[in-house]
Each structure stands twice: as structure tokens, then as C-alpha cells.
Amino acid sequence: MVMTAPRPNLTREPASFSGKPCYELRAEHLGASNLQLEVWQLPATATPQITKPVRIAGLKGRNLALIEHRILRRLSKAGISLGGLKPDQPKAFSVDEELAMMLGLIFRVLAPMRSRENMVTCVEGIEAMGREEASYWLGMAMHRKNPRRVLASLRMLMKD
Question: Residues 101-156: pLDDT tens digits?
């Protein structure tokens, strides 16, 4: 099921008319050392079927805390700093397609997991994937009838 939600008043750059899909990372500080990150796809000329922002994936809590340093490193390479987040003031950042795809896949795979070592193994495997392989798995996880089975298959492949 694809979730859509009305877009909150967030400060960010306007949507691109460059013919590429537009993505944004929404970050919110929920309390003491509790961060929530979500990846959204925005309407753009390249994706006419998308009329409202569509949530790709999100992660928060202990699962995000375990890999937060990896995510922050990736974001800093993209020129995004989450240092100025204040509680109950979400921020949105434009991200490129490749970063959105990797973050979306990582967030979807890790969301239901509990084993810390399996989580780290899965993240390392996803980070080692090529762009085509990662987009294949994310597409399968988003558009298949049973996305849980797709994600379970990916987790099993990563653990072996």
C-alpha cells in the first residue's frame, strides 16, 4: 500500500523541472536522541502519474540509531546537515535519485528487523549493491502484491 499525505509546510527548494524525478528527505527530531527520517517522491514532469507526494520509506528509533552514523555520512557527502534540527520542527531536503533509492531500500529492509548483527549485515549488503540492483529491489518492494515476501527474500540473501 502506497501512503500519501498532505505536504506539511516545510522549507525546501522548489521541485525540479529538469525532467528527472524529485525526491526529498524529511527529517524530524522527536525527542532526546530520537530522529525520524522519511524519503518521499514528489510530483515532477518526469513522473506524471504522481500527483501528490508519495512516501517511499521511513525509519526511526533504535533501528535508525544503529545505522545513523552511516546515514549521516552519506548525507554529508550529499551536502545535507541535520545538525540544526529542533524538536517538532520538521525539515525537508532535496536529494538525488540514487541517494533516495538507497535510503528507501535501507529503511524498508530495516524497519521490521530486531537482530542488530543482521541489520548491520543487510546495510553493508545494500551499500555494496550497484544502482541497478538496488532499484530492482526497491521497485519490487514498492510495487509487488506482497512486498513483505520481497523484503524477506532480500534479508535472507544478505544474511547468507
Answer: 999 999 999 998 999 999 999 999 999 999 999 999 999 999 888 989 999 999 99
The total number of residues shown for the chain amounts to 160
Range of the domain at 150: 18-159
Question: What's the pLDDT score for residue 14?
Answer: 45
Under the banding of pLDDT at 50, 70 and 90, the label for residue 8 is: low
Domain count, the chain: 1
Distances (CA, A) of 72 to 21, 38, 51, 66: 23, 14, 30, 12
Q: Is residue 22 part of a domain?
A: yes
- The helix, strand and coil proportions of the chain, stated in percent and rounded to the nearest 5, come to 45, 25, 30
What is the C-alpha to C-alpha distance for residues 39 and 60, in angstroms, rounded to an integer?
Answer: 12
Does the pLDDT value for residue 4 go beyond 70? no
Nearest to 30 by CA among 67, 69, 66, 59: 59
H helices of the chain, in order, are 61-77, 97-110, 116-128, 131-143, 147-159
Residue 6 lies in a domain: no
The rounded distance, in Å, linking the Cα atoms of 150 and 156 is 10
**144 lies in some domain:** yes
Q: Is the pTM of this model over 0.70?
A: yes
